[in-house]
């Protein structure tokens, strides 16, 4: 039953190395041996064959069973154990299989429960999705119905917009036609106004006359005749030497220097209220020119339908003597109104416009290609800064400059130099349009009154046409 190797291991040893406790000697020996199994001193002795066959027992065993018997008994027990184990395995195997099947069944039941829960959840979700689908279908159906209505409205709106575009285009063309027509009417009325009432032109001294009047004793005396001593200072009263601009009869200097008016007012006050009322008086000339320019500006702003930044009251220049501060402020407002009117008509020569040259800006305005048309107002920033400089009133600045330039040895010389043969420097006799200007001061005032009444009549005609 056991293999040969196992049997050889279970068998008793065949050789025992017995050692005597008494050394071999010639003396007395005692027959005492140690047992090879228990190493005890016994007098018993087992031979090799007995030991080999298993006929020996344990020296301390309580049951006297030999080794061979014990060996047989152990083999029998092992055989019985194997048989019992095999029987148990045969009996337990169905139970194990049953348990395995039960576990598998339980696992299947658990999976089935989970699947039922998942299926229920899926069914509920399907129900919700169907409800949402029905709602979306209902909403889409409503929207489809509305979309048809919106499409119809869209078509109507597109037609309306197209019609409005066409109407706007027609109105723009009509407006453009009316604006051009209005511009032509404005140009016609302004041309009539400029030709028959307010004629504005530039007048310069002839070149030959300027050459003859070089620096000489006669010219020096003539210049001295235009010097006057006012308030302890020498001042030059003739500003009509270089280029000038004439409106009807009066002229204004191209330099924009209107200080002779202030000098005339100062002289009148020093003389006890008896000013010089001659035609060549610069005070009357400048005040008349500014008054006519103010009237022309008021009529132009009315015809062009432009609201000026300052109220244009042209009676301030012909209502009497003005203080230097009021005079400068009124002139500055007049120049600002003229420049604003130039900007409103699209004058492009910004570099040629001058904040002080009154009539020159009027000429640029009348010669503008877009004059009479309604265009956006574009103002140059550089000229805006110059406006601030113009509006600042300076107390007697021109008199202070003359005090530094003139020598203290000058004396006032009478202008009546009839005995001397010198070319006349009267400004009005040098122009071809005005043959003779030797009128009295009262005649000059009457001429200005006639021009004012004519301007008022033309103004009323324009106003009635506009209404």
Automatic annotation (TrEMBL):
InterPro entries: UV_resistance/autophagy_Atg14 (IPR018791). Residues 105-139 form a coiled coil. The keyword Ubl conjugation does not apply. Keywords: Coiled coil. One of its GO terms (biological process) is autophagosome membrane docking. GO terms for molecular function: phosphatidylinositol 3-kinase regulator activity; protein-membrane adaptor activity. PANTHER family: BECLIN 1-ASSOCIATED AUTOPHAGY-RELATED KEY REGULATOR. This is ATG14L.
